[in-house]
Amino acid sequence: MPPNNHEDESGGHVHFLTVAEVAALMRVSKMTVYRLVHSGELPAVRVGKSFRVPEEAVHSYLDNAYFDVG
């Protein structure tokens, strides 16, 4: 199993991203990602002094971030 993966409760694999990877994926700054993590809007696990964010959580956040302008 690669070091960035972990099995979830259902036996599926969870792929974790670093804050820098999340920032690149979302095209925002790392500080924005840290704010989302600290506010609880984006779930993360703490590994030492670093955070790891489940990739699915990033996609879920973005899917739910759409709003209707009109």
Automatic annotation (TrEMBL):
Residue span(s) of domain Helix-turn-helix: 16-64
Gene Ontology terms for molecular function: DNA binding
Pfam family of the protein (one): HTH_17
Domain of life, source organism: Bacteria
Assigned keywords, A-Z: DNA-binding
The protein, known as: DNA-binding protein, excisionase family
Source lineage: Bacteria, Bacillati, Actinomycetota, Actinomycetes, Pseudonocardiales
